[in-house]
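Page 37, continued from 36.
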């Protein structure tokens, strides 16, 4: 997974992760999941395989102070469970007589290279519009209303952290990039596994395939003996 996704866009990395976790679900169907469903699945995978606690840091935009933060991804999972009880599993939006589905990975891919925020919002609204009525020519205020309604219908599409700088007391909200956190864990484990294979192969002359065929426990003990 790490090798296949190392040069891919984060949107593709997220789908690679989900493909490994849900091998019976076609890739195209995963790409059609609402972003909130995608992010909940990533949160569950992070909690199951790497632990529930996220630790990271961000720089204050005003003074540059480095801020560390920690959160439990189970808060995200619990919040989505409560939303589903109230709204159902497939959120949608009705606004001023127009119907919209909530955005998916496909919709984000459409605007991945778009540099104009207004045009990006227009393209997402056009893509998510459901029905035969006119789906173009929205003004800025209409796009804001559509975006706000989508955020309410699918709140896990974007999770933000409320932060406060201890140095200058500046307060702001920072988006939480779940894909980046999960991918960092995958990359770390992949690199560690490569180092284990390299160390064992150098000591015993075994091939990569032979080393990877060992159970994780046996491979770890061989690696420990090599290091000592």
């Amino acid at each position: 997974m790490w090798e296949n996704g190392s040069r891919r866009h984060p949107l593709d990395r997220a789908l690679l992760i989900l493909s490994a976790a849900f091998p019976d679900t076609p890739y195209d169907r995963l790409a059609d999941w609402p972003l909130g469903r995608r992010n909940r699945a990533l949160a569950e995978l992070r909690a199951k395989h790497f632990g529930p606690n996220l630790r990271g840091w961000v720089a204050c935009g005003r003074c540059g102070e480095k801020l560390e933060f920690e959160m439990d991804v189970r808060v995200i999972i619990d919040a989505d469970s409560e939303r589903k009880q109230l709204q159902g599993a497939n959120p949608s939006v009705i606004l001023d007589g127009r119907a919209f589905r909530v955005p998916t990975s496909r919709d984000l891919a459409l605007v991945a290279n778009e540099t104009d925020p207004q045009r990006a919002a227009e393209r997402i609204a056009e893509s998510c519009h459901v029905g035969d009525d006119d789906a173009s020519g929205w003004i800025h205020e209409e796009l804001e209303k559509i975006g706000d309604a989508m955020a309410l219908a699918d709140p896990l599409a974007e999770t933000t952290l409320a932060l406060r700088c201890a140095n200058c007391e500046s307060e702001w909200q920072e988006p939480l990039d779940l894909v980046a956190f999960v991918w960092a864990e995958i990359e770390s484990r992949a690199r560690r596994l490569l180092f284990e294979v390299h160390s064992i192969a150098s000591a015993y002359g075994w091939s990569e395939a032979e080393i990877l065929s060992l159970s994780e426990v046996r491979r770890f003990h061989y690696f420990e003996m090599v290091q000592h």
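Strands lie at 53-59, 66-72, 92-95, 98-101, 129-130, 160-164, 171-175. Flag for discussion at group meeting. The longest strand covers residues 53-59.
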